[in-house]
Every structure is written in C-alpha cells, then in structure tokens.
C-alpha cells in the first residue's frame, strides 16, 4: 500500500478525473457494440490507448489459432469483424509486478425498445446512476482500467511494471476474445477484470454451456392435427425434463455455492418453430443456457443433457424414432474458483478497505466471466472486482457512479503498490 | 344427365385427355406458388384460359375494395403481388344454367426440404400418385376445372351456359381471393370447388381463425433467472389453457360433426421468442390456428379466446400486470353448411354414381374452404368435390391420378347437364 500521503493524493486524483471518466464511459456506451458490431467501439478504445502513449495491438481473432486451445467455445458465426484491442504500458526498467486489466467491449441485445425508459444507447445520468446497455456490463469497467492509471499520471507517476489494458470481444457468448489474448502471448503476475461485481471480489463462478435442441415434427394439415406431431409442443416436456436436471443440481451443491439462493439456472432463452399457421409445425429449435459447478467436467455435463433430452423424447412415439438433435455452440465454459495469488488478493483487500472503510466481501458468481481463462489455462490468478450495477441484460441497465469512483480508487491504489511507481516521462 | 351414348363419349373424352391433363397438372405444380409468389403460376393459368378462348380477367386484389365486406379477413402483408385470374366462357345465347368452377393457386410452405423424398416442386408420378407441394391442394383441381370442359370440346361441344373458371390467391390464409371474385361481380347458379375432398361432397366445414399471442417477459441476466419472468415459458400454460377450450368444444358438438374423431383443432403452429442465449427472454409470440362450428359467431369465439388467455395470465404475477396482446390476422372464417341447391347436389350425386358405380358420400371438413363465401355471402350453393389426396400441408403431398380421372368425368357430365351443350364454334 502507498503511504498515507500518497494514498490521499491518489484518491483525490481519481476524484479530479471522475467527471471526465463518467463522460468517457457515457460516450463509450453510446457506441452500440452488439456482438458483430464492436469494431467502432474498439477503434474508440484503440484511440484512447494510443493517446495515452500505450503500444496498441489490434487484431482480428482467427479461429484456427485458438480452436485447439483449452477453453475454446465453438462458434457458428464469422469472426470477420471480431477485433481485439490490447494497449500495453511497458516501463523501460520494470521494477514492479505485471498486471492485466481486462474488460469486454461486447454488449448483449437490447430486447424490445419500448420497454426501455430511454433509448438503450442514449446514455444518461440520473442521480447516482449512469444508464444504458453495457453501462455496467462492462463499459464502466473498461473506463476504470484506463482512468485508474490516468489518476497516477495526473500525479506525475506511471506504473513501474507492465500493464496490459485488454478490450476483448466475445465475452458474452464464448470468451474466445480473452482466449485469443492468451494465445497471442499476453501474460502477467495477476489479472483484474472490472466486471460489475458490486464492489466485491469474485471468488467462484459457475461453468456455463449453451446448446440448441432441434426438434422435428410430423406436419399435417391442422384440420387433422391428431395425425401430425407438433414440433413446438414436443419441446415442452423436453424443457420440463431439463428443468428436472437443474433442480437436481441445485440440491446437490458445490460447497462454495451453499449460500446462493439458486446457483444453477437452466434458461430456455430463444425459440423458433413452424412456417405456416395452418400447418402442424415440422420443426422447432430452442436455445438453452445452463450452468454447472466448478470441477464438473463439461463432457459429463453434455452427457447429462443428452440423456435427459433422450429420456424425454422416448416418451413420444414420433420423437423416439426421430430423436432431437443437440448442437453445441457458444459457451463451453468451465467453472472457476479463485485460488492462489494470495499476495494480490491481500493487497486488493487492503486497498478496498482503505477506500470503503469496510472489508472486501466475497462474490459468488452464478454466471461466467473471462476470469476462467487466466486462472485455469495460464496460471494467472484473476480477480473479478468492479462496480455496482443493476439490470444487466435487462431494461434500463445502469451502474452506480459512486461505486465507479471507489472501484477506480481501489484499483489505482492496487496498481501503485503492485507495479510500483516511477516518475512519468 | 346426358343420355347413355353421350355419357360414354364424355367419359372416353376425359380418358383421351388424361395424359395431357396429368402433364399439365405436373407443370403447374412445378411453379412454386407460395403465398406472395403466385404471379407466375397465375400467368400460366391466364395463358391456359386465353388459349382456350375464354375471356381473361386478371386483377390485383385491392384491400380497400373488400375490407368492409362480410367474410373479409385482416392481413398484415402487402397485396402488391396478389393477382386473381378468372377466365369466362360466355355462349352467345346462354340456354343452360351458369357455373363457377373455382380453385386456388396458392400453396403452403414446404417445411424442411430434407424431409421430402424428392424436392417438393419437382413434381413426378409414381404409380397412381402425382407428387409435389400443391399437387392435391389444389392444382389437380384447377386442372380438372379446365380439362372437364376440354373433354366436351374434344367431342365438338361447348357448355350452353356461362362458366367462370376462377384461379384465386389467399385461400390458405384468408380467402380474400374468393371474396374479391364476389366483389368483382362474379355470380352463378352454383359453384363447384375441386378441393381434394377424397371423391366426396363437402357438406359442412368448420370456421377457422388465426391469431397471434404476444407475451412479454421481464428480462434479466440468466445468472439470476429467478428475478426475471421468462416470456417463452410463460406461453406454455396459456397454450395449455387454450387446449382446455378446444377440449370443451370437442365435447359440445354441432350435430353435423358428431361422427368426426376430433373436429375442433387448436394448433400452435409458429413460435418465436428471445434474442440472446444468456438473457431471460423478454418476448415470445406464438401463432395459433383454431376452429369453431358453423353458426358460432366469430365475435363470441374471439371473446372465448381472450377470456382463456386472460384467465391463464392472471396466474402469473408478471403477466397479470403485463397482459399478453392478442392480434387477429389471417383467417376470420365462419363455418359453413351446404344448404339449398338441391338440384345441383342431386345432379352431382347422379353423375358421381355413373362414374364411380357407388353413391356419393358426404365429407365433413375440419378445415375451411372458399365455399363459405359463395354460400354465406352470395346465396350461391357451393359444392366442394375433388380428388383423393394425402399429406396435404405435409411432406410428399400427392394426389391420386385415378381419382383425378373420375372427378374430371363427374364434373364433365355435370357441366353437360347443368349448362347444356351447344356445338363448338
């Protein structure tokens, strides 16, 4: 920890930059970086890094480079517009430890616009809240990463260790953006991911899997609906059976998830079926997102899903002979428990306590984050630590400005100690 | 009925033209006249009528012309490509009665191509069956209408009464094509619709209604699925409740439907919902086709649907405050019982018996046909009478060639008597 005088200066330097930081975050939210459309927001990030004097590495993800690495998730979409951006600060004589400050640029779809109070990309401030799709998840975090170092620079210092500012794509569907950073060789002594953890330290996260179930039917004229097999309605008992598996896994818990209300969530999140209102539908496809515990082998998870779908299908004479097809695409993400890296964790706890005046609480995630890649596949302890946000993936997503301020202060203090400081050039 | 000698000649004249008729039908099936793409098949029909010397009336349906007429069904699509074609034979001094020979050119979608033995529009003959989407429903009928008169012409005769050959669009979704024929002034003493009735006479048909139910949800990150309200799964109990109404109506039957196995069919036939696999879906829309009995007021049917949906929705705290929206589009079709026109019915029975050697059976339709427009709104008894077909709206749709032959013979005999004959010019 920096001494008291420097600490006070750093905290104030963050405050001095806060208005600019919030304006910057709002500007970033206004760039609608939905999956497949992140390129302009990534240009913005690259410019921000270049202006600060960081070495900018911008590259398009190449599936062939990463598809055989552990943690890869299969994709059915083109990566022609999937640009990662990393800005690196490399002091001439690195004395301190190195750090990855990671965030993702992609945001999830808005859903029906009429359910938003104001247009989702028209970012605005109301009271303590900054609104907009992606405000919390996680453009506030991308800005925190940059502005924590800016506060040090404002005091005439720069970190005396390597820092890699990563702005990655694909966090919301595969994590292949973070994986591509590993493949490209980025390493550090620890990583901080400023996901909206609600001022807490992510200590464990579930595994997440996406799959599609493609169900066939036997079409017929609706006038003789009994002679057909309705592919849409055939999905209902399959979904019900999968909820049975979800209930089982919620009963039989991983110890770190004992206190969570409902750690495992199986959600049917997309559905599409049928072509014509007067035909018994011949096809229906639903998408499901499921989760599992750290340590559960994904091959076992897939087997459980397949057995469940097959079991439900055997009860239909048509589906017994025309079994649904299961396609895995998107997340094939293992669970992760933050282990090791006690030195970094202790330092973050101490920085947090200085800023908040209270102990850093643990956060157990019932979703996934890119932290798993660093921790599981590169032996880099990855601490998820970010601001308070609400309605992420929902309507009127927002992030707390006071929380942004405090997290930025904690991270700036952390950097000052972890990397050390040197006089800015 | 024509005398025995003429009858024999007419039957043979149909046989003599049969190969050409089947080739013609196959050619017509090859034109993929899906809704919105009927224009080229209608050009083909118009050419066929012109070649035969009929006056061809081809016009685009104008919604404004028909939207206030009874039997109109609301549409959400453009009619920019909705062309009707009517070819009229008008003898100089009409001595006999007049006749409408109606058929529809639109076919329903094919569904997944891999479930067809051969491509759906690659019409082919195998044994007694002519295959292809629309082969039975109802391009065979359109050809029967033309070739029945061709048989008479081959003998040197033409009908001595007006005949209007109608090739209409929109039968599969609204019936607005047939309605537009009425609006344009086409009338006759009776109508025959050569829908695939399986060599039987349509005596009653259900009413049919299409509607969409738009269900909202409260989205959230799937990690906290419990805090959201899943719009897709919210549809399931609503669909179940609608099936309850279906069961009620199947119990409490219209007398003409007593012997049908399951006259009323409520079918969820299309569904779409959700945007993102890791968001609790905020919206889901399903399409349903339902049916009702002749005499049931459609306003009462809509009320029953609305009460059922509202009742199921009240059980969800979210839907109770965010009630699903019901949108009516497509069929708003009343049921119809063939009444009156005994002279025409008796004649058709007698022609049928001559050809088939057995009595004409009644056919009760659990679907709708355009017959309702003529019978309910123009006082024209409309007889649905056509060939045997199977898998209509399904895969490997096909129509029996032997049945086509016999129906064409019956209709030719009917015309010879109903309209009378005069020497062809």
From TrEMBL, chains A, B:
Q: Where is the Peptidase M20 dimerisation domain?
A: 205-310
Give the E.C. number(s).
3.5.1.16
Query: What name does this protein carry?
Result: Acetylornithine deacetylase
Enzyme category, top tier: hydrolase
| InterPro entries registered for this protein in UniProt | ArgE/DapE, Bact_exopeptidase_dim_dom, Peptidase_M20, Peptidase_M20_dimer, Peptidase_M20A, YodQ-like
Family assignment from sequence similarity: Belongs to the peptidase M20A family.
Q: Give cofactor(s), names only.
A: Zn(2+); Co(2+)
Q: Which CDD domains match?
A: M20_ArgE_DapE-like
Any idea which UniProt keywords this protein has? Cobalt, Hydrolase, Metal-binding, Zinc
The molecular function GO annotations come to:
acetylornithine deacetylase activity; metal ion binding
Q: Which NCBIfam families match?
A: DapE-ArgE, PRK06837.1
Q: Which SUPFAM superfamilies match?
A: Bacterial exopeptidase dimerisation domain (SSF55031), Zn-dependent exopeptidases (SSF53187)
């Amino acid at each position: 920890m920096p001494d008291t005088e420097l600490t006070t200066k750093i905290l104030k330097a963050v405050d001095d930059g806060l208005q600019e930081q919030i304006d910057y975050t709002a500007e970033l939210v206004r760039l609608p970086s939905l999956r497949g459309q992140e390129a302009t927001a990534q240009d913005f990030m690259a410019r921000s890094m270049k202006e600060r004097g960081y070495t900018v590495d911008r590259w398009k993800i190449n599936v062939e480079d990463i598809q055989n690495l552990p943690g890869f998730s299969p994709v059915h979409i083109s990566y022609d517009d999937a640009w990662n951006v990393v800005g690196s600060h490399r002091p001439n004589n690195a004395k301190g430890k190195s750090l990855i400050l990671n965030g993702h640029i992609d945001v999830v779809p808005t859903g029906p616009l009429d359910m938003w109070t104001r247009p989702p990309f028209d970012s605005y401030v109301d009271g303590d809240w900054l609104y907009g799709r992606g405000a919390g998840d996680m453009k506030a975090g991308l800005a925190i990463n940059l502005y924590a170092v800016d506060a040090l620079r404002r005091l005439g210092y720069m970190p005396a260790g390597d820092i890699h500012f990563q702005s990655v794509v694909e966090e919301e569907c595969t994590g292949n953006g973070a994986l591509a950073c590993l493949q490209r060789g980025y390493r550090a002594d620890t990583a901080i991911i400023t996901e909206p953890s609600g001022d807490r330290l992510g200590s464990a996260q579930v595994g997440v899997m996406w799959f599609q179930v493609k169900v066939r039917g036997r079409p017929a004229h609706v006038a003789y609906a009994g002679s057909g097999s309705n592919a849409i309605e055939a999905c209902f008992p399959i979904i019900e059976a999968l909820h049975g598996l979800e209930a089982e896994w919620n009963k039989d818990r991983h110890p770190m998830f004992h206190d969570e209300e409902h750690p495992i969530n199986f959600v049917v999140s997309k559905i599409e079926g049928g072509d014509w209102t007067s035909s018994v539908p011949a096809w229906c496809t639903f998408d499901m997102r499921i989760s599992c515990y750290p340590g559960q082998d994904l091959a076992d998870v897939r087997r459980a899903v397949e057995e469940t779908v097959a079991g439900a299908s055997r009860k239909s004479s048509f589906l017994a002979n025309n079994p649904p097809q299961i396609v895995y695409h998107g997340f094939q993400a293992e669970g992760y428990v933050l282990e090791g890296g006690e030195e970094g964790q202790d330092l973050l706890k101490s920085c947090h306590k200085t800023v908040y005046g209270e102990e850093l609480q643990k956060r157990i995630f019932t979703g996934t984050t890119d932290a798993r890649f660093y921790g599981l596949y590169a032996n880099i302890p990855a601490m998820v630590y970010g601001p308070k946000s609400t309605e992420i993936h929902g309507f009127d997503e927002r992030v707390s400005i006071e929380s942004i301020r405090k997290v930025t202060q904690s991270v700036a203090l952390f950097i000052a100690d972890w990397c050390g400081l040197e006089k800015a050039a």
